Amino acid sequence: MHALSVGVFAFQLCGYVALSTWVEWRWYHRRRGKEREWKTQPGKMHGKIHRRGAARDDDDDGRGRRGYYAWGLPALDLVRASPSKDGRHPSHACYATCNLVVSSLFAGATCEAYLAGDGKLFGLFRSTLVNASAYSVASAYSVLVGAVLAVTWQSVLEYYWHRAMHLPRVYRLLHKFHHHYKSPQPWDDLFIHPAESFGYCLILYSPAFCVPSLPVQAFLLYMTIMGACGVLDHCGVKMRWPFGAYDTQFHDVHHRSFDANFAFPFPTMDRLHGTHRAS
Ligand SMILES: [Zn+2]
Ligand SMILES: [Zn+2]
């Protein structure tokens, strides 16, 4: 086991927590009371941070209580009051914590496979990642092309995987957990049945093993895009990239209506299959 693999595991875990915490703090705490300006579905809120306390630290809730920030990290609900009373699913903390740890383990294992060189991870898998030479136009081009290939690979597999999750029997068994939240907020992206989450992690990390000669920098860029979009897709905050390339309301529509917008993170596959619905 390489120290770098442990570092990658920790970076993935801490990076996810940091981004989710920032969104939660920036909007759900600091801009509470002004949901009409930023919330994708302003009337629908759940979680501790929305039930108690005032909008901000420096005012009160009309009953003399100071506002405070209650961190929504799911692992905390494993040791404090029942989360189900706040609109959270009873299994939210358990599933979300398990999925966060497992996805971070995937990151560490992928790094280990890369560092193993000629060896094979667990005797089975060998990374296809290569190191692009630094600071050259050619390497920048190969990194960009590699990232596009990885995103495309993931987007195709994810679309059909997600459609399969909506088959009636599979939905009842696995995917209904993820759809428990009709208006997802920070941390809700982690609420997936662990079996579904494990299957999706195989897709998410598969470019490192299936896209030939993928520059490691391209894979890191791809993972940064996937990680950020995974959090933002479910954050419930209106955000849009220029020219409509990415819109957080795209996946919000999927949670609201079930039968459209299956793709992640970009809508291309939905447009090709006629399942796209504008937000
Ligand atoms: Zn979702
Ligand atoms: Zn779905």
UniProtKB/TrEMBL annotation:
Record's keyword annotation contains tRNA-binding: no
Region Disordered: start-end pairs: 38-61
Biological process (GO), any one: lipid biosynthetic process
Transmembrane parts of this sequence: 6-25, 135-161
Molecular function GO labels: iron ion binding; oxidoreductase activity
Domain of life: Eukaryota
Subcellular location as annotated: Membrane
Any Gene Ontology CC annotation: membrane
Record domain Fatty acid hydroxylase: where: 148-275
Keyword vocabulary terms for this entry: Membrane, Transmembrane, Transmembrane helix
PANTHER family assigned: STEROL DESATURASE
Family recorded in the similarity comment: Belongs to the sterol desaturase family.
Name of the protein: C-4 sterol methyl oxidase
Lineage: Eukaryota, Viridiplantae, Chlorophyta, Mamiellophyceae, Mamiellales
